[in-house]
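Data card: per-record layout.
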Amino acid sequence: MLIPHPALETLLLPLAEATLPRPPTGRGLFIGAEDSHWLHSGALTWVCEQNFKPTAAALLRAGLSEPALAGERFPILLLLPPRHRDQRRADIARALSRLSEAGVLVTACANSQGADSLQRDMESLLGTVQCRSKHKCRLLWSLPGERRIDAALLAAWLALGAPQPILQGKYWGRPGAFSWDRIDPGSALLATQLPSDLAGAGADLGAGWGYLSVQVFNRCPAVQSLDLFEADRSALELAELNVGAALGQRAADHRPSFALHWQDVSAGLAGHYDFIISNPPFHLGHAAQPALGEAFIRSAAAALRPGGQFWMVANRHLPYEACLDGHFQQCRRVIDAHGFKVFAAVK
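The structure for this 347-residue chain is written out next.
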């Protein structure tokens, strides 16, 4: 039988089979949460945390939007870990810091996405960890009577979740964000092609940690405002730091404004803009999804004022030309270099 989300199904086995100790009532915490019918059964109420906007919106629609209370600790905690190892370590440490002393911590990972390293990390931090294999995944859990926490390692891993200075201290990054400690070469190429006469109100679609937004403000003195749209809330927090630092060096009466939007760009934009820039995502998990970039193009075209400019970079092999031609009056390929292509389109 095909399992649509093997790691999620594996993670929720203890709920389905009632094989681990848990309170009969109360609240549990699910970090990296995704919806499942098992979260709606039983007497436990689940606090679900998710940084990726489309998944968070699905949880909200499913009624799984209970907020955590300040300082609340939980008797059971589920963790669906991210792929990046340092981000995963930070999430394990954060989960442990929010677990009650007698609580149970449960996590699961596909064998092909680092189950071995996850188990080694859990054992390094917690000592004894129980393990079970299912659906080509590994289910791991830590029981209160067996935990022997390495306090120094816990502190080090908690620090991994905080913003870190990158690129000789010019910017802030954090493990797990796209291109978290370097400038993405596609964004770097687009930045070199942006015209200095961009002006008025603009938007950055898929802003990440804010590199392109900083470049717009640095290169285009007539820009008055910029809206940053990003589906990864963790990256958007970095963008606030990076853009804020860049603009903070200016006199208050010569400082343009910026606004942050934790949003799924493919769902459309409410504002109207004189120009839009974008380095859109084209992967969902492991799979390439050119439709994501096409959705960004459609949203940009709908949000631009007549005559507005759209500047976009994409991997050379992605077939965006037809979509661009279908939604803009004019479109040209500005440059093709280093495996990327930059387009300039006018509505």
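Known properties of this structure: The two ends are 48 Å apart (CA to CA). The chain has a mean pLDDT of 93.

See the next section for split statistics.
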